[in-house]
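Reply to dn_fold:

You asked what the input looked like. This is it:
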Amino acid sequence: MFSPPPDRYFPRAPLSRRTAAFAIDLATIWLFCAIAGRSLFLLAFLLAWFTARIFIVLKNKGQSLGRYAFDLRVVDQTGRTPLFSDLLKREAVLGLASMLALIGFNALNPANAWSLLLILPLGVDCGWAFAETNWRQAFHDQVAGTLMIQTRRGYSLDLKLKQIVAQLQRRMRQ
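and this is what came back:
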């Protein structure tokens, strides 16, 4: 179980931002896999997932493309970027669930409604964060001893989108 040091404050990341950042990462990886084709799906997914979610994170202070877009980063118990072994544990659990979900979505048609069951592992893994009330850790975070926190380093995509929507609403009223 994750227990951060009592003298250190970590600004918890809201689940909505975590979900949006994960969706950006998964969509980017899915696009890469779609270009590679069905015959190379598994190899392309593994290559893209571990590049985007481990190697880029190690070089970019705990941020992937989606996490950078939403001002998030993954840290270990000391507040630093996790080690390669911790990221490998974390992303192996999340990557397997994500790969099954993508296979389920790709196989979805009226004759294969069972493919929706392949989405369940991802739902259970990420749903763990809703049940855990202290630090809102998903199962893959608890396995690796990591935590998603907010940071000032990033693009703040959600805040910029809110500003654009507010401007559009003001213009529509005038």
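The first helix runs from residue 15 to 36.
Hope that clears it up.
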